[in-house]
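Researcher: I'm comparing several assemblies side by side, and this is the next one on my list. It has 560 residues spread over two chains. Same procedure as the others: predict the full complex and return the structure.
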Amino acid sequence: MNDKLDEAAEETSSSDFIRDIVREDLAAGRHQGLVTRFPPEPNGYLHIGHAKSICLNFGIAQEFGGRCHLRFDDTNPAREEQAFIEAIQADVRWLGFDWGEHLYFASDYFEQLYLWAESLIEAGKAYVDDLPVDEMRAYRGTVTEAGRDSPHRNRDVAENLDLFRRMRAGEFPDGARVLRAKIDMASGNMNLRDPVLYRILHAEHPRTGTEWCIYPNYDFAHGQSDAIEAITHSLCTLEFADHRPLYDWLLDNIDVPARPRQYEFARLNLSHTALSKRRLTQLVAENLVDGWDDPRLPTISGLRRRGVPAGAVRDFISRLAITKSDGQVEMAMLEHCIREQLNVDAPRRMAVLRPLKVVIENYPEGESEMLVAQNHPGNAEMGSREVPFSRELYVERDDFMEDPPRKFFRLGPGREVRLRYAYFITCNEAIKDANGEVVELRCTYDPETKGGNAPDGRKVKGTIHWVSAAHAVGAEVRLYEHLFNSEEPPSGDDFLSDLNPASMEVLERAWLEPGLADLAVGQTVQFERMGYFCRDSADNAVFNRTLGLRDSWAKIKGKS
RNA sequence: UGGGGCGUAGCCAAGUGGUAAGGCAACGGGUUUUGAUCCCGUCAUGCGCAGGUUCGAUCCCUGCCGCCCCAACCA
């Protein structure tokens, strides 16, 4: 296997400080095989920040011929749920990764963890403490002052063992006692000031039920789980760097079967959104969004429902560097990756979002014809389709201006434009309602321009999309914008004040070309000139806008 | 003020003693039956700041400055 690893190591082109370490370790023959893990806590849905970790861990495993485990860090039954366990697996799969047989749970190791706790006690390196939470906090000192020893710090082994066993037996209520490591109350690193290892929690665990009433915390579970699974490189985010000395201390002081190492990298921060579990949970719990898979959320499920291809997410992550400097990536970067892939993959269709009726006065009443439209002008292999054309059509309201500026290339009184894949039409008259609002356009078409070209060689500046009124299918279309107005929403609960009230606009009466009635859920298409849209997974009558097209007209318009 | 980490363009970053890659954004221009796509071009005499070493410093040394994380019986 080592040869295979070496080969793989040489083939890998991408590089960052973690891959460099892996490469060196493999070259030095420090491991039998490469094993990483993605360790989510099942207390919420995965978001695009997790995608960075998933791509890193599974990616490195693939590149170096190793494997990556999916391990749930389910040590806090107070906030973990089976539903999250299932959603997380679905999201990792959707992203394109496969853990094979290697699905694990920290809770699978509870008995072993317990035994290791007893061994620490027997070695005089852990003790049961009775201090209430607030007192323990006071004893811990502050960031600039050393802590003080708990009065229970020097209980003898026998008493500690007895107390710890009685904790497990359920003799004490929640919060009555904890098991602590005996390290150094004066350490500059707060994590080493006799950290709590076990707490009493009479809560039902999604997997172990009521079998346990004491649970190990993150520090006492994570490194040991890594060791049990023979993880070689345990990759986590920067905020755990301070935990590394504890990770190492624990592994050095108990009898573990392997010796994994922890490395930290910067987590992903994205502009105009929220990427902390706390914030996402709050948005969902307070119904500020419509569930964990709301298309406005940066959750994997939200992105999927929005119509974002998994490949675009992976591409985005691959353009990010794995470093230790934390910054904030612009949403525009993600959007670029989405457009880049959708531009290639999304079939083109026509849909009118804000309809304005057009009557072609010289087109015979009651008649219609089928016109050929390309499914992708840049890729003939995607074929073509037929769309019905008739006397009454809908065009986009924004494609008509009563008093257009010089640079406006669309419809206006007396102006001629091309209806995509159809005919040139000229606007003769705009009909208004009692409020003076334009409600209908009377136009004439040039039968000679069928397909969109004039035999006399005359040109038109604008091409607009349309849909035959009698044949179109109605739909609700939802337009999404950034969830937050600021690039970086304010800290604390203030972040809610930055919510973008226009993050979702619902257009209830859009008209789609008839073929769109059969579009499959999850399939993303381009509505020409409007953007990328996908049928909503929860409501068939709804189309979600994944993203608009780049719009240089909006820039021109904005400048004048 | 203790400990840990980080500072290269608007954003993400490569480079680590020999004269600043790339991507995103932005801005010009060309093609175009999507004001899309595509193509071409512009965009750091400068690498947080100040000294020092050196023929030569983003890179080495010293001192500052700034930002992030840590005082849950969360992860």
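Model: For your comparison table: The radius of gyration of chain A is 31 Å.
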